[in-house]
Specification:
By secondary structure, this protein is an alpha/beta fold. It is flat. About 30% of the residues are buried.
Length: about 425
Amino acid sequence: MSAPLADKIRPKTLDDVVGQEHILAESKPLRRIIDSGKIPNMIFYGPSGVGKTTVARIIAENCDMALHKLNGTNASTSDIRDVVAEIGTFGSENGILLYLDEIQYLNKKQQQSLLEYIENGDITLIASTTENPYFSVYNAVISRSTVFEFKPVSAEQLIPAIKRAFRIISEDTGSEIIASDEVCRIIAFGCGGDVRKAMNTAELCAVCGEISEGKVTVTEESLKILAQRSNMRYDRDGDQHYDLLSALQKSIRGSDENAALHYAARLMEAGDIISLSRRLLVIASEDIGLAYPQAISIVKSCVDSALQLGLPEARIPLAEAIILLATAPKSNSAESAIDSAIADVRSCDALDFPRHLQNKHFDGKGASVVGQHYLYPHDYPNHYVKQQYLPDALKDRVYYNFGDNKQEQSAYLYRQKILNESK
């Protein structure tokens, strides 16, 4: 059986890799690590078809370590034990490099079984995943690894690779492939940043091309039929996916329900109601927030109904949620408040708690302040009494600012009332 075009065209050096300049260009972090020859444990994170496996193979082929390859979709604990058994043998005297594709499919116990060996250097792990590793990979593995994000490849970067693909097909088949610049452009823009998908599309186009006098011409008409099918099944991790979700959220934030419905319809036509539902839940808190706090409950109900119904009926509750969010008052005060608090946490590390907030009642010998002295708010008028809650270093910090909408202004007036009455 002939190897897929994507495998034949797979780059042999880092300079041949399409895209990923942010980590692979000269002087960039991953490039410098690879060139140094000192390979740490690494996790490659990004959508399918953007070079994660290719880069891992290049690293493996240019180091002296014994290479083992496993795929998380079918690897067993026994497979991992077989790799571990190679430690210290003659064939692995320079160390073992384990390339583990789709690590997110290994369970926690399987991932844990590698910890001792990747920590002491007996095994160097290069893992790849299409899912966010901070959610899908065991935290202890993350802490022992360096994560590099691979991004979708731009259409402009894909065009030269597509032309190269057609040249390779011509060489393999002995027939000249005629593909115009416009054909290459349509393929590039229709593949959502996925190099493998672009190669497979080029190969399919060559098969479906018009044959005349020993030449195969790829026409725009046949390509658009193939591209139409491809676009309806768009890569949910590619550029088009993120652009649609971004356009949807910005339209709702801008109170344009008609534009929001348009972008939502495109996601529905691609069958992607899961991404649409998740983004609507985010919008309810991020952009509507405390201006209409009930929105999150209503949107959650609409999303639950949509996921239970499935398409085509799911379009109705989702449309209800979209119109509700687009026409609702807007506030990002909650997001701004928590982001400010997180920024302080990251810059100040762990600060001491005010003594009266601690969960202890014995101060110990030599304590400068004896007694907890906590004031119980429910014992005071309006269930409020003034006391310090933030750590000393941040005691005057203000994170939340009341928004100018009716809901938050009502809360602001109530706050002012109880402050005045407590004086």
